[in-house]
Design brief:
Helix content: 25-40%
Distance between the termini: 38 Å
Order of helices and strands: EHEHEHEEHHEHE
Number of helices: 6
Strand order of the largest sheet: 3-4-5
Number of strands: 7
Structural class: alpha/beta
């Protein structure tokens, strides 16, 4: 709603779909089913921008297929396989985001990270943005680490899982 964009999220389970809508997505499609057909049924404008946050290696070919020519594809994960040439025919630009690039490389615009984080904090404080925190498992200990890891391995986690304190 801050950007004026129509946001289409992907989720498989009904509870995850509901969660995405609660976070502000306008629609949700199932990434385990053909995505292009689902997008076409939504009757939304051609998909010009995609942010792939996880499992990019499993979905990037289908994403390239559904994107509009000259679109923008952004990702944050580290896909085991990623053949950028699937985006070439449509001249889709690929953008990797890494939160620590500015500080790791002491870029001239490093202060920009400070400004961005302050802006996000303000939007969270005002209730404009919601955190993606989904579960807090308590203190950091072996049992809670195993519990969190088991949830991640199950493929049924959503949002952030937090462990804090000793």
């Amino acid at each position: 709603r801050l950007t004026g964009l129509s946001v289409v999220a992907t989720a498989t389970r009904p509870e995850s779909q509901k969660w995405c809508l609660g976070l502000g997505a306008h629609a949700v499609i199932d990434h385990l089913k053909p995505m292009k057909e689902q997008i076409e049924r939504l009757k939304v404008p051609p998909v010009a921008m995609v942010a792939s946050l996880t499992f990019t290696d499993q979905h990037y070919k289908a994403i390239a297929d559904l994107m509009a020519p000259q679109g923008k594809f952004g990702l944050i994960d580290d896909p085991a396989e990623f053949n950028v040439s699937v985006f070439k025919g449509k001249a889709i630009s690929v953008h990797w985001e890494s939160m620590f690039t500015r500080s790791s490389f002491q870029t001239p615009d490093m202060i920009g990270q400070h400004h961005l984080l302050n802006d996000v904090a303000d939007l969270l404080d005002k209730g404009v943005l919601r955190t993606t925190l989904d579960q807090a498992f308590g203190t950091i200990n072996a049992a809670n680490l195993k519990r969190a890891h088991a949830l991640l391995e199950s493929g049924k986690s959503r949002g952030k899982i937090v462990l804090e304190g000793w």
